[in-house]
Prior knowledge:
Elements: H1 2-26, E1 31-34, E2 40-47, E3 50-58, E4 87-95, E5 98-106, E6 111-121, E7 124-130, E8 137-144
Antiparallel strand pairs: 1-2, 1-8, 2-3, 3-4, 4-5, 5-6, 6-7, 7-8
Amino acid sequence: xxxxxxxxxxxxxxxxxxxxxxxxxxxxxxxxxxxxxxxxxxxxxxxxxxxxxxxxxxxxxxxxxxxxxxxxxxxxxxxxxxxxxxxxxxxxxxxxxxxxxxxxxxxxxxxxxxxxxxxxxxxxxxxxxxxxxxxxxxxxxxxxxxx
Length: 147
């Protein structure tokens, strides 16, 4: 009887350890990231059991970034929404070291892509965007913003 209780306790501890490790790994991409061109900063945060990313800074030479609008959106009814604060990453779920099943919106082209994210180094995030079938893809890297 004691052997069965010990085994059950060991299994419970193993599952709790795995869940804790996944939670720690999941949170490693939370924070602020530069896009590849360093023209924007995206804050990645938790939203329920998923991760989302919002535009929080846009490099600008002229004009107020608060007035920049989503003018190239493929949906014409969304073209008057501001880019600042716009959710461009949505629906990402963590599994086996990859955040997947999400979408990324490219405000320069106005197109949304299926995406997955993977942390390559502590401060280097790889983003793969897929248009339609997974064989049509583009990969970019984002760098963590240093505080």
